[in-house]
Fold each of these.
Amino acid sequence: SVMLTEMINNCTASTQRGYSDVYDMFFTPAQPAFDGVGQSETPGAVKSWLDRYSITLDGVTPIFAIDETLTGLSMSVNLEYIDDNGAHIIDLPDMMNDDYLAPRQLNIYKSLSSLIELIPELEGYLNANGAGKVNYRLQEFAPVLMETIPTLRLLGAKVVMPKALQDLIRPRATMMLTTRDNDSVSMLKLDQLLDFDWRIALGNNIISRDEFMSMMANAHGLMRFKNEYIYIDEADMKRLQRLMSGSTRDLGPAQLLQIALSGKYENTPVLLDDSVKELVRQLSTTADEPLPEGLNATLRPYQRRGFSWMWRNMQIGFGSIIADDMGLGKTLQVITLILHLRNHGNLDKERALVVVPTGLLSNWEAEFARFAPSIDVFRYHGPGRDLKQMGKAHVLLTSYGVMRGDCEKLRKIKWALMVIDEAQNIKNSNTAQSEAARSIKASTHIAMSGTPVENRLAEFWTIMDYANKGYLGTEKQFSRRFASPIQLTGDEQTAAQFRAITAPFIMRRLKTDKSIISDLPDKLVQNDIAQLTPRQAALYVKTLDEAMAVINSIDDTDAAQLFRRQGLVLQMITALKQICNHPAQYLKNDDDDPVLSGKATMLLDLVEAIVDSGEKALIFTQYREMGALLQGFIAKRLGSEPLFYHGGCSIAERNNIVDRFQHNRADRIAILSLKAAGTGLNLTAASHVIHYDLWWNPAVEAQATDRAYRIGQDKNVIVHRFITRDTFEERIDAMIQSKKTLAEMTVTAGENWIGHLSNRELTNIFSLQSSLHSTED
């Protein structure tokens, strides 16, 4: 448009009508005649102007051939055309002898002459009818290569040149990594070990800074180097000089270790000396550490590797994130490590701090007593808690809530080790709980989590910042360097680098990997589809219409109204989800007949079949009130009341429920609140897991399923995902299943994202099919 405006101004400045006619010719269906005063020359001017932007005439295409010479490079022009006999390429001096080109030579020379402004050397070449070549020294050819050749290609000409010129090299800063003491690689702390010296990467060649500076003293712009061509402009040179002569504050110990692990600096390969290569080898392999005396357990091979790996990381000054799949025995591996510390005297003067969700306090106490009875555990919890009573206990066991409230007291104690279980409890970096956990100092920090990333990659930063403070930089730096490229664009190269630099400090094994554990039975996941009853469908449509009427009335240009809109969308989701569960949950009335809900009817049939076959089942729901309804439905159908585990249960009641379900043959069904029982519990007596209502977060769903599908499970586990047909449940589940992305690290959380959808998208997702509307009649 800028070039067209220039042309219009040049060729039609005489009259306003001329401007209008040229504009209409290009941008409207009109076909102006250009018969007004002063317009007779306009069509020719337009053609002349357009000819500047195309140099292919009468089916002839110029080919600019670039060749290497002893002193630099040369350029010559050939002509290409296609006729019935195929393609022909003719040298410019031979044009007179070609039957096809000879009649067109005047137009061809005229077209090529229009390029003299772009290539001044072309004038003499054309005057000599293409005899010889246009010769350039390397430095002279730089602007031709960087500016002229791209323009020629844009104009429709072809350019042929050596491959080395096509793969032009731009110098990049890189480095040689070394260790400060080659004889003590395994004895020093890694964050004090590495050193570096700047190098310059020229393609696959890496040279010293002095060698590069010497090279640049004698040449600039375009130069030859080992059969390759290098181009460097003034901006490149200043950037390299500033980098190599300036401060290296940004390359601290953590960054140098990341460079060593990834083998790259800003995507450019680096050189590693032998001692650094050995260091990287040590970090990628783990030698078995002898198991501590007094351990009352036989560790599986992968569990022994996990213990040895955490011990190795401690020895070199790093914390660990043990992220084994739920049920693979993370607790046993950590207890083995604590016993090892105790046997080595590390807990004589300092202590170990273990922080867990409240519901797991008893479980951890029992596991310590079972596997390492020589460990003295002090439970610090409850209203009468007193740190003075800890005495010489090796381990202080407490909850996240107590840690948050008593953070100042806990900071004053010297800790040899701090462990957090279910580390997703600190995933949000700006919460008081997360800040408290990351503020307590210890010689080593260990995080345990079956799902180190539930929703956003930022959660991983928070947990790694707890385990190895500062290793991944600030949260803002991490977002710019890793989270945004991986989550927003699916950048595989960045993801590979991320895995390389974090792999030594996070261990993730999956139950489905038969090389890890071969004796765990199979897990079958299936969607069980329910149909809305007529009453449910009518209530669904009425509630949806009323909610969408309010949402559609909101001004989406007002920030405050947008926030209100998101809240209304989430309220609508909750209402419709409750209606799909059972109308009574939404209406809060006493009309609690199970036949009013397609899901409830399907559940009762399934539960009865499970009990009749002598099996056990877990039923998960998000809502305590729905759990109470299900408890009543099942009690009436089976004649006995199922267990119900929820947030209102005391610790003693929770322990009793788990014990009864695991060991009492009569207790075959357990209803569980997803929030209260989604993690930490061992309920391997179940061979069925039923998700009555979905939270649309695969990670949370998997956590709940893993209450049954874990070590100790000797039966195949069937997972039933209840979904109501033709409702938003079916459509959102399909969307979530399609959102599993790179390394499953960016799964969208819960249903919060739905609040940002447009009104049309909401209507499409939540509306019922017409066949369901008819059931109201």
Amino acid sequence: MAAASPAVDVSRTTAPAAPSVVAPAPPRRDPFAGADLSPKPPVEPRSPTEQQTRFLLPAGYRMEPVLTEPAIQQPAGIAFDGNGRMFVLELRTYMLDADAKDQLAPVSRISRWEDANNDGVYESHSVFVDSLVFPRFVLPFGANAILSMESNANEVWKYTDTNNDGRADTKTLFTTNYGRLANVEHLQSSLLWALDNWLYSTVNAFRVRWTPTEVLREPTGFSNAQWGASQDDDGKVWFQGGASGIPSYFQFPIAYGNFNIPDQYEKGFDDIWGAPLGLADVQGGMDFVRMPDGSLSRATAGSGANVYRGGRLPGDLLGDYFYGEVVGRVVRRVRPVKTEGITQVRNVLQPEKSEFIRSTDPLFRPVEIKTAPDGSMYIVDMYHGVIQESQWTPKGSYLRAKVEQYQLDKIVGLGRIWRLTYDVLGRDTTRPRMLNETPAQLLRHLRHANGWWRDMAQQLLVLQQDRSVVPALKTMARRGTMLLARVHALWTLEGLGALDAGLVREQMKDTSPRMRMHAIRASETLYKTGDTSLAANYRRLARDADPDVVIQAMLTMNVLKVSNANASVREAILTHRARGIQLVGGQLLKPTGELGVRSFSPEQRAVMERGAVIFRETCAQCHGETGLGAMSGGVRIAPAFAGSPQVTGHPDYAIKTLLHGLTGPIEGRTYAGQIMVSHAQQSNDWIAAVTSYIRNSLTNQASFITPNRVAAVRAAHAARQVAWTYPELASSVPMLMQQQSTWKATASENTESAVRAFGTAGWSSRVPQKPDMWFQFELPEATTLAEIHFQVGGGGGGGGRGGAPNSPPPPMLFPRGYSVRVSMDGSEWSAPVAEGRGTGPSMAIVFAPVRAKYVRLTQTAEVENAPMWNMQQIQLYEMRAISP
């Protein structure tokens, strides 16, 4: 960077990725215009054998069922452990009717399957984890263990089978602050252990990493993805867009941030060429229907994600990217074409106006695709009637009309997993047994032709942390005859903490540009732990003849904040005319600003900019520039802010900490800094700015803190003269209760939808609000409640058609007046614990802590021309004692 410019963290500053839209959509019209809604025969499910005849495939390819209903129901994802056993994510509550009834009921599961006789069909199984709330992913994690998390939860858990009976019997916390409350289609998914030993998921703008002592976290760019992540042979993670229906971010590793690359999709890439089914059942209405065949015309619902690396299909598939378009009922084959450091994606079959896999069965729903241990490709087919979540199928909408026309909501509880093979090659019948092998035996698999074997061997070696293989790994990295084996050896050394600067400097001079590029990336770990002499190597490689190497050197210098990196970037731009160097270098020199990737009001942006300055000047030395906690002698000086549930929880936690300080262990962990000093001498504006900043940057997202709130907390504890201890502080502030599937809700109006008030779908009274109208919820056990927060929506015309042009905005549907009463048995109610008037789209009702199992909100105001009452995303805060 230039001497006069501050260091820039590209993971938060570079331009957002180009929107996942290839061409502007035509003007919207009435979605019903031209629609055929006449009575039709219902769509009927076919047997797997019948469905098999409905696939339209390129010559020589076959689809074979390896696992079907009734053994599994509504599969959404698969993963293989080191012995080739297949874990299946079964979302048994997804869209059981058009209103998503009981979607968050705890009845989903993760099953484990084995092909015991090696005939290619999985027949032996166990239910590894049961009674789950819409689990988000499954990642095998060593022997007899997986990582997973549930919807609307915040924690990733490790489930382990300790007695080898096929069922997990222990559950341990892996990491927290990983999730959010949202529609099930807008939550994180697809946890992937990548070549660089970091774990990536969709939605989250951060990555995590297992180490023997802790789980690390670092900010990344934004993937703009919903369900689907895969990696290529170079460890670049490819993210799949959901609503866009096309790949989202794939240009460079997401750890370096986002870059705006024009023309990264070929013209017409979002055109979908499915079989002529005639249903026209697309959420966007007739604008998205290709007539007269009634198929999907433009991408709308992408899922799955797989860079094929298996070696048992034709060689020209290697490195191609495959994903499912579930509304179009197709699997697309994408060819990445790299020119001058920039990748453009192309539909291989676009010239033929076709797709790689199509089906004339309208229930084909390819939700995930994976390279399998046998070298083939597996396609997970939910085989389901309704594939869009209920927020897109409301009564009166075009899609709801289509669902009811063909009775698609009646087709539930099915699911198939298919193997794609090629006649001439067939599958590899070698059975993996990596979980029973020694580290020395695992090393052999780093040379396997199938990328799945290489990835799994590396993961197991890193998890085992057996350094006896280090000499052999170094030899492989230096003199291996297979480039990909050398790459894996290098990253395995990095994962074992055995990488040394001498080795990476050797590889930075390798004849292969790919090896030079990996040496740069792998060396970042050494730079972060203190070997800043590597900066000279980065500057030299920024003058490399290969554009990919130059781009990697620039990205590395930027993310590591290497001094005078801008000078090297300018030199690269002047001396190397490759388009990728020009685009990346230009955006590094002119970033959009640290706050450019988030949408803030002008007032919030001013607060964030001031808070960022305060943070760098006052906090970063202990808490680290990226909020991960600075290190001293291998010990963390202060807690990490990034991903901290305390920082993003109730605002009073951060306020009280700054006002009075914090001392002693935090959740049993001691830090080198020992004590957080008081900043009570600072103004209320100062404290509000820096706390708002740390709550809304560094991978965090939470409410802003106002100076008035700081003043109120300051006044309430004016007599306090000593620092807080963590148990004392944590017990003094309300804590957010994690939503549970056992929460119940009823209402005086529209009671059947009351439970949806806890999610983004929301509850509405459906009739104008009036005095004594009520909403009530029941918790599984009594707790000490202190606050109730919720969001409200605006009134609308319904039916999905929108209001008249230039009409006034609809009224907000908050309760115009309210009272809150509590009960322990649902019969005898307290006097009001809170009363007031509604305030707007976001409401927080605060009251003195009170024990309650039942809570009832009553609408108390008499209002002329009253609107309906709506609530969504209810959050409850409780007072909880924290043990010392």
Amino acid sequence: MRVPLILVLVLAAVLPCGAARAQAPTPPTPPAAPTPSTTTPAAAPAPATSAAPTAPQAIPAPDIVRRSEEVSARLRGLEETPAQRAEIEAIERRLPAVAEDARSRVDPTLKALAATPSSGMLDNFVSPLLAARALLNGWAATLSRHATQVESNLAELGAQRAAWQATRTEARRTGAPTAVVGRVEATLNSLSGAEATLKTRRAHVLLLQDRVSQETEGVENLLARISAAREASERQLLSRDRPPIWQAVRNLDALREVPARVHQWLDEDSATLRRFGQSHGAQIILHALLWITLSVGFHLVRRRVPAKVDADPRLTEASRLFRYPFAMALLLALFLSPWFYGVLPRPVRTLLFLIGVFPVLRVYTVLAPRSLQPSFVALTVFFVIERLDDVAEVVPLFNQLLFLAEMLVAITLIVALLFSYRRQPDESPLHLARAVAMLMLAAMACGFLLGAIGYTRLGRLLGSGALSVGYYAMLLQALFRVTQALLTYALRVGPLTYLRLVQQNRLLIERRLGHILWWLSVAGWVLLVLGNLGLIWKAKALTVALFGLTLTRGNLNLSVGDITAFALTVWLSFLVSRLIRFVLEEDVFPRLPLARGVPNMVSTLLHYSILLLGLILAIAAMGMDLTRVTILVSAFGVGIGFGLQAVVNNFVSGLILLVERSIQVGDVIQVGDLSGEVRSIGIRASMVRTGEGGDVIVPNGTLATERVINWTLSDRTRRVDLRLRVPFGTDPQRVLNLLKDVCANHSGVLRDPAPLVFFNGTGDNGLLFDVWAWTPRIEDSIALRNSLGLEVLAAFKEAGIEAPVPRLEIRMPEGTAAALDARVPGAPAPLRGPGVTPGPPPPAS
């Protein structure tokens, strides 16, 4: 109890003193003391010298003039540039119109949302709002950049002004000359003026930024309400939204509203088109100039195509398309519309689709079989009618009646086309057209029935969706054919034909690019169909949700999007590496005077570098902290040092072989008893092709550390050795002359180095001669040895020199033959002749 009692006494003494200090008057400028609740031993107040900001340093007197000139130059750099002024003025000029347009859409959109519109009408409302949001977001980013720059400049001027104020104080204290003090005062005045100008600019930018933010918030709110209405519409897709047609026709008085509502709708579309023309005048002019330029270019190209058709039949389709250069140019120009205007309002998009009908029909009347041309025309006409059906949505009954009439006419026409197909010759395009027609007939019949019983939204999704699916496929197929024709022609004329990679790989390039264009067309078709059916937003949401799925294991947190980004980045790095190496090997290396082996070294090292960079980018795209990766790689390196020494040794040895170039691809080497041609130098091992036709995998470490004979390091010449034997008694000089003549007359023997023929002594059965001849290609050494040997034998035969016959001389003791005859009954007679010398009799047994 002694310790608590001491604590109580201490508190009793301290608390009254604290209360007295709290009641006492506070001095004018006391230092701020930390409160007991926030004071800890680790957070003790720092000394005043470290806590106080650093005082501005006065500029030395000898540097005042120079620093003043630097300040003047810097202030001139801080002035607003014409480009910056133009950006701000453009935002100020266009912001009121955009704001007025966005506000004018609020009431009509809210009224339409109250009537549960279809997905198509919702898209009509969304398109201009998305365009306005994109424009406002761009302006917000521009203003934020300007505000940040102005704020940074103000901070810089504040620091400069403090330094020059300290300089003025110091100059007055030290009695500096009046001119120096005047220069300091002038610099301070310039800084103050620049600060005032920057503050005015900052206020202007911040005010404009606030206006843009308010308009953006209004657009976002309206888009959120449309999104909610869309979700409600999708939930009601399977519910009846109209009464059956036999009940709806009882209220035909509703059709009286059609003229007024249609007129109002057309006025709104006309106003939208006018506003679009006013806000995108420059883009429209550039778009028109692009179409004119393409038309003129295609018209000039058309004159050169027929001359090349006979030489290359692949240009036949291109020549047929180039007969209509204006239609081709219009189709390509319309395809590039999103790059000119961004998000297009619904009336503008409809107008562009209607204009695009003409070039699409022109392409199909040129390329499609005559039996299928009526089908494409009918599909295009119904798509145009379906585009104009947006006007009918303003009156539900009129919309329902018009939809049923359209489906009924379309069904009748499709049935007629199916009957007409039976009278046409049996062809594969006709089978595909018949299958597509059957699918469209089924979809339109279902749409007609659903629309008749009151499920108009679902029926329009099926019926109109079938029309849109067919026309979009037709549109993108036409664009694909036009682009493929341009590609086919571009690969057969200059300047691409001057490239070696095009000359040697034209068909490969054309096939690969054709596959890429085809898949791009399929992707574009899917996006267009989803957008027309009103499912693009749901598809985006599902895609985002799919890529957002997360796998968590301890500290590891990976999503499907991260894994996909990693895989795509690695895959793209392989593609980029292959493409770059293909271009280098086909068109760059052959044109440069590089030493042998340098192209392979550059290609391989570039391949490794691109893959390493791709791996780093893939890890970054996956969202993994690179510092953790560094630690992991370090730990992995330690493991490699202990467990994968051979792999690392072979990898480093491969790099050494590539850089040192002592062994290159195509060299003929010999390692121990292995001899063959080097086909590749890989990461871990190299592949050697033997003369017997086998592929031997040799670790790179073996090639880098062991004794290797490289027969083709400096050149590909090879010496052929031929050893000959002639009988004793032959004139050696005559043989030497004969061999020299054979080597001199042989076409495969190099003259430099000259063949060498020399006498190599005597052997068991004759005189020995050696022939050393050189061939320029090591691959021809065996053939040269064979042909040279045959010619030497022919020359010997012609000169009467016979090849020595090996002789074996056997000496037998005297009486050996008689003894053998006595011991072996029926043995042949003993050998006689000059080659058999009788020897002494055998010893007695």
